[in-house]
């Protein structure tokens, strides 16, 4: 068997871009702090979908 495939690099933390340890309990974040930061962004509406219609099936006219 050829071992040509390179080992997968650890995914960087989506908040601070630091490498996350495989065994990290906070994955995909590097730490509980970064997880809280990401959660805060969610609550702040950073990821909200703009202009989503409530009833797409109900079209006027
Ligand atoms: Zn982080």
From TrEMBL:
- Summarize the protein's role: Inhibits all the catalytic activities of DNA gyrase by preventing its interaction with DNA. Acts by binding directly to the C-terminal domain of GyrB, which probably disrupts DNA binding by the gyrase.
Keyword annotations of the record? Metal-binding, Zinc
Quaternary structure and interacting proteins, as annotated: Interacts with GyrB.
Protein name (record): DNA gyrase inhibitor YacG
Question: Is Iron given among the entry's keywords?
Answer: no
The UniProt record gives the binding positions of Zn(2+) as: 13, 16, 30, 34
The answer to whether the entry has keyword ATP-binding is no
Family listed: Belongs to the DNA gyrase inhibitor YacG family.
Q: Which Pfam families match?
A: YacG
Cofactor remark: Binds 1 zinc ion.
What's an example Gene Ontology biological process for this entry?
Answer: regulation of DNA-templated transcription
Native organism is: Roseicella aerolata
SUPFAM superfamilies named among the record's database cross-references: Glucocorticoid receptor-like (DNA-binding domain)
> Gene encoding it?
yacG
Region named Disordered: 1-26
Residue ranges with Pro residues bias: 1-13
Output the superkingdom of the source species: Bacteria
Which cofactors must be present for this protein to function?
A: Zn(2+)
Q: State the Gene Ontology terms under molecular function.
A: DNA topoisomerase type II (double strand cut, ATP-hydrolyzing) inhibitor activity; zinc ion binding
InterPro entries linked: DNA_gyrase_inhibitor_YacG, Znf_NHR/GATA
């Amino acid at each position: 068997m050829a071992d040509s495939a390179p080992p997968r690099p650890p995914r960087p933390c989506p908040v601070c871009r630091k490498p996350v340890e495989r065994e990290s309990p906070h994955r995909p974040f590097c730490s509980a702090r970064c997880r809280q930061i990401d959660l805060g962004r969610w609550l702040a509406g950073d990821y909200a979908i703009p202009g989503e219609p409530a009833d797409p099936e109900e079209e006027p006219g």
